[in-house]
Batch of 3 targets.
Target 1
Amino acid sequence: MNRFAAATALALVPATAVLAEPVEYSLDSSHSQIVFHYDHLGFSTGYGMFSGFDGTIMFDQEDPANSSVEVSFPVRSMMTGWEGRFEHFMSEDFFGAEEGDMVTFTSTGIEVIGEETAEITGELSMNGVTNEVVLDAQLNKAGSHPMENKPWAGFSATTTVLRSDYNLGMFAPAVSDEVEIEISVEAMEGQPETDS
């Protein structure tokens, strides 16, 4: 191989690396939570959680802007810590939720902000309404899981939504219209193992 051919081959190496495809990661349902909270009449802060949900991250560690996220979970998987509050949230005053009604998030774009931070824009759908939201996201860690011995990644994110934008505005603004959302997820490369 002459010098020109060798130089050409070396020049092509970075270009090939840039073209690497995102790798599929599946959410670890046992270590993924969404916590939301809101002001209740100025007297207290109300909390709720979704956990155990499914989702897929197409993760491009070399070019995070080329990644994507899809998550979905049943509305009725909400946990509030008090059965009466759960039933009220599921009533016609709020979700009017039946079995099978879902909350979904699908990313539409990712803007890298820092070495481990990004803004993830996507469509949040619930209660029959879809709106664009932006998640302030951070990569917590990516590497080999010490017990599972496979590639693993952890992410955190926050956002704020107006519940009235989803036809859930009863008692606002006395009970705050703004709902703060905190997300923490772990994801594993490939599909999760299932019991046969």
Note: The mean pLDDT is 90.
Target 2
Amino acid sequence: MARRAGADGRVTAEAILRESLSLFAQYGFAAVSMRQIADKVGVQPGAIYQHHRNKQQLLVAVLDTHMDGLLAASAENQQGDCTSVQALERFARFHIQYHITRPDEVFVSYMELRSLEEEGYALIEGKRRKYERILKSILERGVNDGTFQLDDPHVSAMAILSMLTGVNTWYRSGGRLSQQKIEDIYTSMVLGAVGHRLPDTHS
């Protein structure tokens, strides 16, 4: 007999976050009720409140889980010695690979920042800034060693992140271009934006 989600606290907690994310992405945070989430998880509404005091705290948990996963994966991706160009290429490919497989997380993390109250916003925005600093550090390093040519690392970082994250708004698996080719094109554009070109090895 299959284990019910409510039979184990950890399983229930994971299901609550997973189903909340799905519902927030589909209907928007404001339109989703705690009862809807409970019905989707397969538990009584009271079980949700054992894990989260209210819907606001649940939204914070959903976004915080996404940011923690992103930061941990990014830190692992940046391990090892490499040049500024290699670090930027590695970052660009990682960002696309990580986000393109998590469309709901990306959508909710951007669209529902407006729904966060002050404390939750400060927490999530702090972690977003930490991720942004990874890219800014790469750009600053490239400027300092004479590899990159750009006017302002912060503005350049924001532009690059917007461009890379924008892939999620149009990419569909099985389309005309493979994910690998899309990574190549975007990485080439990122490097071109800072004064470098990536050799075409996948034509």
Note: The radius of gyration is 20 Å.
Target 3
Amino acid sequence: MDKSPDAFRTISEVAEDLDLPQHVLRFWETRFTHIKPLKRGGGRRYYRPDDVDLLKGIRHLLYGEGYTIKGVQRILKEEGVRFVQAVGRGEESVAAPRPEPRETVAEEDEDFVASGNSDPVIVASESLLSDDALHKLRAALDELVECDRVLRSLKTPTETLASE
């Protein structure tokens, strides 16, 4: 049974609709303060239609247009949430991202990696890979970033100091 277009969606429904892992949506919540799903008992997320449009816009800017997380944050600040939602609905388009200085990218490797755009092999290989292969490569990269985040959170303070 299909839901009404105005119905709230669960994280699994949104993840499937956007063809993204659920952890990427949870990660984006930490980077984009505008993503605010309704949370019910047990922390279960429910996304409004506007939330889904915003997520679609963010996904398009990151994966379709090649923006970094910082670049999408800048668009949200300068153009606003409604603009990014319109991008998600296909009603607006954006110019190609401005190249970022190399120092900025190096300082934000974790965010840049999480956007799926940092690895020069991925960027350079985009024209060499099929869309399906590129999607799988980006999904694998997202998984690795999430694993790294989990492993870092499990380190004790002594281990953290020893590894630095």
Note: The mean pLDDT is 75.
